[in-house]
Design brief:
By secondary structure, the chain is an alpha+beta fold. It folds into 2 domains: 6-104, Alpha-Beta Plaits (2-Layer Sandwich), CATH 3.30.70.1710; 109-202, BMC (bacterial microcompartment) domain (Alpha-Beta Plaits), CATH 3.30.70.1710. The chain is 35% helix and 28% strand. The protein has helices spanning 18-27, 50-60, 84-98, 121-130, 154-164, 187-202; strands at 6-13, 38-45, 64-70, 75-81, 109-116, 142-149, 168-173, 179-185. A 4-stranded antiparallel beta sheet has the order 1-2-4-3, sandwiched between helices. Strands 5-6-8-7 form a 4-stranded antiparallel beta sheet. A hairpin with a 5-residue loop joins strand 7 and strand 8 (179-185). The longest helix has 16 residues, at 187-202. The relative contact order is 0.17.
Length: 208
């Protein structure tokens, strides 16, 4: 049994998309994740509880660990497998250890979202200099940026956006107070990505 946990984020990604998996694979510290894998992403408070929960998942299931992060306020766990059943089993084992269910997670909210059309060359260079993991933003493309809270939910939004549209993943950040995603492409495809990401976030159940 684990001490009282504030379950901020609990998400299962059933099929990691190629760009999403590639960017995620550049930042994980443990087992590399690949496109087509399923993924479990959990964000909790207090952060140091991730160690016990990771122990529970690894000893009881067949998932592989990508990372366990303890930052200033929260802790995060990433686990993955080619079998979605393994990931679901790991998630349930963690929930059981905390005496929680999925509806005890926080419901995400969209903090901001915007589309910038025909991105200026100077602005694209500023964004590219900050980006270390994804694609290059080309001047003239459209750019969609979204922020959510809690941060880790942005991972699911990015993956769903890639499923539903032909876009480039510039970068995303699921750690910290807010999660952010940046995707680019044609105006129509970026709008498709926007709709998929917003629908994804709005359809996640949880406590207010």
């Amino acid at each position: 049994m684990v001490d009282k946990i504030n379950l901020r984020t609990f998400i299962i990604i059933d099929n990691m998309q190629p760009q999403y998996a590639a960017v995620t694979g550049t930042v994980v510290k443990g087992d590399i994740c690949l496109a087509g894998m399923a993924q479990l992403y959990i964000e909790i408070e207090p952060g140091s509880s991730v160690y016990k929960l990771m122990d529970v998942a690894l000893k009881q299931t067949n998932v592989k660990p990508g990372f366990q992060i303890v930052e200033r306020e929260y802790g995060e766990i990433e686990l993955h497998s080619f079998k979605v059943g393994d990931v679901k089993e790991a998630g349930q084992a963690i929930l059981d250890a905390c005496s929680l269910n999925i509806n005890d997670r926080m419901k995400p909210k969209i903090v901001s979202e915007q589309i910038i059309s025909n991105v200026d060359p100077y602005q694209s260079q500023l964004i590219n200099r900050d980006n270390r993991y994804g694609s290059i933003l080309v001047p003239g493309e459209s750019l969609f940026i979204m922020e959510v809270e809690p941060a880790a939910y942005i991972s699911l939004a990015v993956n769903e956006a890639e499923k539903d549209s032909d876009i480039k993943l510039i970068t995303f950040d699921p750690v910290g107070r807010f999660g952010r995603m940046y995707v680019s492409g044609t105006e129509s495809e970026v709008r498709n990505a926007r709709n998929a990401a917003i629908d994804c976030i709005n359809n996640i159940s949880g406590r207010e």
